[in-house]
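Notes from the 1:1 (GR / supervisor)

We went over the backlog. Supervisor wanted to see one worked example end to end before approving the batch request, so GR pasted a single chain during the call. The sequence is below; no edits were made to it. Supervisor asked that the structure be written out right there so they could see what the output format looks like.
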Amino acid sequence: MSMLEDNVKIEVKKIFEKLTNPVKLVVFTQESPIIMPTLECENCKDNRLLMEELAGLNEKISIEIFDFLKDKEKVEKYRIDKIPATVIEGDDDYGIRFFGIPAGYEFSTLIETITFVSQRDTGLNAQIKEKLKTITRPIHIRVFVTLTCPYCPQAAITAFKFAMENKLITAETINSQEFPHLAQKYNVFAVPKTIINETVQFEGSLPEAIFAEKIFSL
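Structure output shown during the call:
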C-alpha cells in the first residue's frame, strides 16, 4: 500500500535532490496486538510505511525500524516513551523526535527537517547559533501540533533547528490528536503550543529570535 500519491512523490524527489549527506530515519513501532492487546497504536503501521516510502525516494536516506516492546535497548538509547516515534539522525542523534504520524501540514515539517539535517545546516542566523552554543544545561522542547494546523510546522522546525545546534537541546513534536492524554495534561487548547523544560509555555509560532529568548528566560 502506497502512502504517497504519485505527484507527491515526484515533488518530494525534487526536494530531495538538495540532500548532500546521509540521513537515517529511526522508526519505533508496535504492530502486533497479540503481543500486548492493551497497547494500541492506530497509526504505527502507516507511520512505518510512510518512512519506508520516503527512504525509497533517495539513496541518501536510510531507515531502521524497531519494535517498541521488543527492542528495549534501542528504546532506552533514544529515550522513546510513546509511539509511533521517528528520530531524524545525521552524523549524530541531534535530539529530533516526531511523536505521531507526520501527515497533513506536518508532512512539510518532516521533509524540511530531513533536508536541513542532510545539509548539516540549520540556516539559523549567526547570532542565534552563537547564543544557542552558550547553553550548558539540558533543554527539552515539546511542540504540540495537529495535522490541520498551518502554523505548526514553523514552530516545530524552529525547535528542531535549535536541537541540531546544541546537543543539550532535545526537541519533539507531539500530535495532540494521537496523544490526547498529554494534550490534557499540558492544557493544550490551541496549537502550536510549546513547552520548555516543563516551565515556560507559549502558544503560536514565534520568530526564531523570540523563540530563543524563551529558552533563556528559564
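Supervisor's comment: The longest strand covers residues 23-29.
Batch request approved.
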